[in-house]
């Protein structure tokens, strides 16, 4: 969009542009917001491609708007390809059942956040969460009930997170939450909130209440940590929570 804006600037001068595309999760605002604007909802066939707005301090003429509409036509198909590519990448990294990230992007995301936290002397914490006796839920109520449980737990976790936190479905009934700019004490509070939310939530399946609890382990980044050590401490803490009776939060030592 930046290239399109700069290429057309000699033909249709403008001070700023805004582009948003919810499918992309993209929201771009470039330049100085101005009084006059023209907006276009971009579409190729039935594919929505977001909304583009150009802004400047004097009105756009009819000739300029006609020209812009023609130029936009040449943008639609490259934009459609970019959207499809982005959707494919997003799907590959998303667990379709729980709509959380899957393992594909886990290592890269954690390493990137570890680097950022170390460079900026910021806190970073990680929570491992494993649903208790999940096999029993599957065996007693069926696999569909197990799937509904996974969806419900993911939703409860998401409801307790901030925008910058990231949730991954790590394996079968295991989730990992990366908590930015949060120290061990505050990550523990978050883990306890999530544990209570899961315990209190009443999942009704086939008219029967299904009791769900989870065990959680928490670790925070240390200055000499590498990726494996950071992850392993939280995983070990979660296993300690399991071994000491489940439905509890353990902090990494
Ligand atoms: N319904 C459903 N079940 C799954 C899925 N992925 C893994 N499972 C099941 O999750 C169960 C995990 O069982 P275990 O590893 O024994 O763990 P658990 O029963 O939760 O026991 P603890 O972790 O020790 O409390 C297995 O029965 C798997 O078949 C899934 O996507 N959907």
The spatial strand order of the largest sheet comes to: 8-9-7-12-13
Radius of gyration: 24 Å
Bound molecules: guanosine-5'-triphosphate
Main sheet properties: 5 strands, mixed
Shape: elongated
> In CATH, what is the class of the largest domain?
Alpha Beta
Helical amount among residues, as a percent range? Answer: 40-55%
| Overall average residue pLDDT | 94
Overall description:
The chain is of the alpha+beta class and 253 residues long. The chain has two domains: 2-91, no CATH class; 94-251, Reverse transcriptase/Diguanylate cyclase domain (Alpha-Beta Plaits). 44% of the residues lie in helices and 28% in strands. The protein has helices at 2-8, 62-92, 106-119, 134-141, 143-159, 184-200, 227-243; strands spanning 16-21, 26-31, 36-44, 47-56, 94-95, 100-101, 124-131, 166-171, 174-180, 203-205, 208-210, 214-220, 249-251. The strands form four sheets. A five-stranded mixed sheet has the order 8-9-7-12-13, with helices on both faces. The longest helix has 31 residues, at 62-92. The radius of gyration is 24 Å and the shape is elongated. 28% of the residues are buried. The model has no long low-confidence stretch (mean pLDDT 94). It binds guanosine-5'-triphosphate (GTP).
Question: How are the secondary structure elements laid out?
Answer:
Elements: H1 2-8, E1 16-21, E2 26-31, E3 36-44, E4 47-56, H2 62-92, E5 94-95, E6 100-101, H3 106-119, E7 124-131, H4 134-141, H5 143-159, E8 166-171, E9 174-180, H6 184-200, E10 203-205, E11 208-210, E12 214-220, H7 227-243, E13 249-251
Parallel strand pairs: 12-13
Antiparallel strand pairs: 1-2, 1-4, 3-4, 5-6, 7-9, 7-12, 8-9, 10-11
Helix pairs in contact: 4-5
This protein binds guanosine-5'-triphosphate.
């Amino acid at each position: 969009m930046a290239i399109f804006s700069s290429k057309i600037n000699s033909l249709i001068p403008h001070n700023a542009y805004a582009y948003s595309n919810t499918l992309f999760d993209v929201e771009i605002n470039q330049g100085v917001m101005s009084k006059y604007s023209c907006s276009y909802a971009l579409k190729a066939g039935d594919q929505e491609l977001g909304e583009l707005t150009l802004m400047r301090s004097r009105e756009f003429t009819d000739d300029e708007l006609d020209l812009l509409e023609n130029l936009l036509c040449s943008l639609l198909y490259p934009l459609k390809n970019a959207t499809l590519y982005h959707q494919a990448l997003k799907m590959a990294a998303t667990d379709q059942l729980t709509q959380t990230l899957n393992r594909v992007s886990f290592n890269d995301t954690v390493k990137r956040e570890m680097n950022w936290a170390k460079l900026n002397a910021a806190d970073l914490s990680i929570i491992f969460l494993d649903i208790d006796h999940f096999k029993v839920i599957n065996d007693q109520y069926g696999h569909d009930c197990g799937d509904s449980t996974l969806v419900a737990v993911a939703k409860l976790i998401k409801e307790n997170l901030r925008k910058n936190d990231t949730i991954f479905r790590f394996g079968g009934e295991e989730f990992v939450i990366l908590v930015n700019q949060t120290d061990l004490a505050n990550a523990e509070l978050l883990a306890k909130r999530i544990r209570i939310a899961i315990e209190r939530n009443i999942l009704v399946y086939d008219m029967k209440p299904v009791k769900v609890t989870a065990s959680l382990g928490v670790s925070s980044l240390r200055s000499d940590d590498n990726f494996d050590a950071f992850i392993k401490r939280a995983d070990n803490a979660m296993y300690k929570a399991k071994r000491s009776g489940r439905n509890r939060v353990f902090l990494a030592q």
